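Ligand-bound model needed. zinc ion.
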Amino acid sequence: MNVEEKYKAAKQEYEKWGIDVDDILEKLKKIKISINCWQGDDITGFEVNPRKLSGGIAATGNYPGKARNPEELRKDLSEAMNLIPGKHKVNLHAIYAETGGKFVDRDEIKPEYFENWVSWAKKNGLGLDFNPTIFSHEKADDGLTLSHPNKEIRDFWIRHCIISRKIGEYFGKELGQTCLTNIWIPDGYKDIPSDRLGPRRRLKDSLEKIFQVKTDKRYNLDSVESKVFGIGAESYTVGSSEFYLNFAAKNDVLCLMDTGHYHPTEKVSDKISSMLLFYDKIALHVSRPVHWDSDHVIVFDDELKEIAKEIVRDNALDRVIIGLDFFDASINRIAAWVIGTRNMIKALLYAMLLPNGKLKKLQDEENYTDRLALMEEFKTYPFGAIWDYYCKINDVPIKESWLDEIKRYEKEELAKRE
Ligand code: RNT
Ligand code: ZN
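Prediction:
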């Protein structure tokens, strides 16, 4: 049987449950995933004076061929996106500015330093998201930024955040797609703090100053990202979950939940529904923590599927902004993007192909036997045949055949970068 025949046969099985497969494939095509550019260069960025990675995030591995300049990074991203079905967004950081060889500190970056990114995005029909880079900088080396006791340092980062939001607004205007500008800071203490309130009060004050400056919501939305702990900040994180939940609710900004930023037994999939009841939109950094916030490439595991199910079942595909956040330097970086992004899309498709209406009904009828039985049986429904067909109609390689293209690119492009 060829791909179409397998698809037809599979479709019939889903249709028995009233699942409209063609309609689902149409819907899936409209979902945009925000692909994190920093997988391509281990979050080095292209500043004129590149700094050491700091802030408790670490990229480990030394797989050859990493992008050394913006042209290479864009080329690699394009290569990855040719192997991923659908049209998506690219998530940038301030350190990816192109300042034409001139040193420009973070509080002085401008939209024009991102013109190349914008024209590339336009040419490829992509959206852009943005992040101020509040780590890997001498003013962040002590692990404190927006909550720093020194006002000059806080002000420096406040200026950086304000200008970053303006850059986000510029992206949105230029590309006709709303940009999400997300603030994450590493602030915290290695050892038991003697004052927990002070730093949080300073962070609140800094953020209020940042958001006092308004951006047009048609073009830019803001989010804040919490964390539970980091390397070097094991005892206390200023921007904790409660801090940002309350801040976001009171200041009309979005909360961004990174799947690696909670206690190991806490699951983001369980948080989505609660958040949706109180926020118009929420944002995600889908990552894979292994024992800690290690940012492994996301795999098609239970939690990924559970997150996708929540978004689909809560009818919130247009309210959850899905971004990826992983950086593995030990494997081919383009393959990492392809694996992770294809998995995210796959998980959404998987979730859409479940008899969600029926399952909800069974729960309300307290028929937990049938609920469990049906959930388990659907795990072996012919989902793969639908996924393959989706790849086919979107002109991207089916199954693992995309690896051949990665190998070609590795030989012809990456190998020359040594
Ligand atoms: C760090 C946060 C943050 C970064 C990126 C590079 O723990 O998850 O989102 O990973 O901004
Ligand atoms: Zn993150």
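The pocket of zinc ion (ligand 2) is lined by residues 184, 225, 258, 285, 325 (CB under 6 Å).
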